[in-house]
Amino acid sequence: MRKIIRFTPLLPKPVWKLCSCRCHTGSEAAVQQSEGGGQIQNKVNLKIFLFWCTFEFEIVGERVYSSFLYLHKIKKKCQRKRPSCPAVLDHFDRQYGEELGELWTSARTALLDPRSWQYGVMLNRFSVLTDITQKLQSQGFSALLPQTNSSASLCSKPSLQCYIHPLSLRFPSQAHRPGRLKQYYLINAASLLPVLALQVRDEDRVLDLCSAPGGKAVAIMQSATPAFLCCNEPDPHRREWLTKTLESFLPHCLSSRVTVSGQDGRLLGQTEAGFYDKVLVDAPCSNDRSWLYSSSIQQGAQRLKDREKLPLIQAQLLRSALSAVRPGGVVVYSTCTLSSYENWAVVEKILEDFPQAEPEDLWEEIAFPLSNYFTFSPPPNQKHAHPKKYALGLLVVPQNGKMWGPMFVSRIRRKE
Ligand SMILES: C[S@@+](CC[C@H](N)C(=O)[O-])C[C@H]1O[C@@H](n2cnc3c(N)ncnc32)[C@H](O)[C@@H]1O
Fold first, then answer.
1. Closest-lying ligand 1 atom to the alpha carbon of residue 316
2. Which GO terms describe its cellular component (predicted)?
3. Mapped to the 3 state alphabet, what secondary structure does 201-214 carry?
């Protein structure tokens, strides 16, 4: 059904342009653009955010439903499509075209359209959540993971809760509210997979070796109450950001359990050998999404040059993590790149060097139950191998409608 919604910006300068309107019932609503004043009919809730915005309202017709309007600034620079960096794109085309074949063609299209990127809403169990869950559900968001509870209490069973929308709707990020914890963290839902793979249990000793800005540390604290979580980040600016994240999401009563350190993760394994039950190595990597939008050709070229050094640093971090974990404990290695040199090759190298390390197949536990939401790819040279084709790790490749990733995740157990 086509509806005309009379719209007049009630908005302050700079003027906003209404560019599209979609209803989660699936029907399209046409929007009458106007430069003058006016009203959104039956407005129930109006929110304005900078740049991409959500405009919530209700239309009273034969049916009542909520809808979203995306607004963006008329400013010319915002109307232009964000340019990708040609040097980086060319490099990715050559490497990923060979490694991923057809899957790269569709991943490329998805990555080159930031407006199609999806964002998950990870709830913070330490805040009051009733209004947020209702709001998310009324807007067509649904829970990605099975939920065990939704109350906010350290005594209740913790659970990682993330809401996702089938369309590329972006829930507004939450501003800092003095004295109040944030209710949610916007996250690429594929970033939760390393945390799920880590299987943190209450009273575990956990190390987040490369922790800033802290998204996965927050996710770890949603999934369990560890005895101890050390969040390590050597870069001082990023460590400050990490500290702020932890302050915004975790209550004071957890401060004895959650600490921040600033060591070089490559050396930490020696100083704290065998201390941890679980170690997450969310390694510095090529970060395909952001590299594609490098701010200048020079920055793109420099990143590609530095890229060659990454597999060595990643292997050093993984080796350090395997020293830090106790016999029988697990290390999860993750990156947000599609590059086989930073993913499978790093894991293969470590397994060669470290006879006590044993990879664990995550297909049954993680990939199969979530395959409706994520597209997984096996290693390039193993495309047709079976049945252990995911033994070294899972690679999430962004695809239209499943815009999560890139994310690589591998779990390695240190044998007893
Ligand atoms: C992919 S980011 C981590 C993202 C973070 N885990 C999250 O979920 O928000 C990688 C981080 O590793 C840090 N890093 C770089 N070199 C490192 C090293 N030698 N030891 C530990 N961390 C390092 C970077 O500064 C960066 O903050």
1. 19
2. mitochondrial large ribosomal subunit
3. CCCCEEEECCCCCC
